[in-house]
Amino acid sequence: MSFGCRLFWQIELKGVDNIPANTGLIIAANHQSYGDPFWLSIPIKTPTRYLAWSEAFQWPLVGRAIGLLGAWPLQVKGADPAAIRRSLTWLREGGAVVIFPEGGRGLPDGSMIRMKGGAVRMALEAEVPILPVTIRGGNLVWPAERRLPRPGKVEITYHPLFHVAQRSGEDARSCARRETARLAEIIRSAL
User: Fold this and answer.
1) C-alpha separations of 2 from 12, 30, 38, 82, 126 in Å
2) DSSP string spanning 58-87?
């Protein structure tokens, strides 16, 4: 599958030496298309799960594919404690969890929308690092208005590990807001 993906979409992987093996890890990426979880997973060796919008599991092609990929449904609106507990357990056992902090796909021109703090809060609670990932070009090969992707180039950059640091006297919510802004800047830097 990875060879076909790399050929059809001319996938260029940068910074793969930043991907750690056999450790609990949150992989946080911008979100441009339905192909994002497949493309960013190509070089990942750690057992990986994906938090995906619960409604996407109802879509015929995408729902089946994300289920086979190992996605867990997440209620995007409101709290979803069951999905979070399951993810925290997985992380503490050494697995990786892919999260798209934007909570949905970015803008049609490939720019990001405001990120939510869930990835940072989860990293704090599970005491694991975050691997920031930038996906560039996904919006062009699989725009939101297309049912199926088309050939083109997709570039995926794996940044150095991001370690969330809570300051002395800082509450978790303030830390998540500050560190999410820092995470967004790292991801945005390769767009």
Assistant:
1) 12, 20, 9, 32, 30
2) GSHHHHHHHHHHTEEEE-SSS--HHHHHHH
Measured torsion, CA atoms of residues 18, 185, 51, 82, in degrees rounded to the nearest 10: 110
Residue pair 74/64 in contact (Cβ under 8 Å)? The answer is no
pLDDT in tens, 67-89: 777 887 777 666 667 778 889 99
Task: Report the predicted TM-score, pTM, of the whole model to 2 decimal places.
Answer: 0.89
Report how far residue 94's alpha carbon sits from residue 85's, in angstroms, rounded to the nearest whole number.
15
Runs of H (alpha helix) within 19-129: 36-40, 60-69, 81-92, 118-126
Domain boundaries, given as residue ranges, for the chain: 2-188
Sign of the CA dihedral running 53, 55, 61, 64: positive
pLDDT at 187: 98
CATH class of this structure's domain 2-188: alpha beta
